[in-house]
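We close this part of the discussion by returning to an individual protein. Part of our work consisted of pairing the sequence of a single chain with a tokenised description of its backbone. No coordinates are needed to read the tokens, only the vocabulary itself. The amino acid sequence and the backbone structure tokens for this protein are reproduced below:
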Amino acid sequence: MIADDHSLLIGEYYDKLDSMVNSPLFECLKMMPKPAVHHAHLTACADLDFLLKLTYKDCVYYSQKANEFHVSAKGCSKEGFIKVNSLR
């Protein structure tokens, strides 16, 4: 991509955005899973003890296939989601 357009290394982000979004590399990156937050400030993160306590609650569900959590006091009927406390 850079060999085709060396100017991607310099200049304004929004001037290059269309070239980047329409590239084969971008298509590949969109398909890759994002298993965790790549950047987080410690002041914006929940305390680890708080997160661990959530795993004991009946209202927290997880799907390994979707790699998602769902929280609902009414239960979760989404396919593949199970109670996190049953995983413990």
Q: What stands out?
A: The chain has a mean pLDDT of 82. The radius of gyration is 20 Å. Residues 13-21 form the longest helix (9 residues). Strands lie at 60-63, 68-71, 82-83.
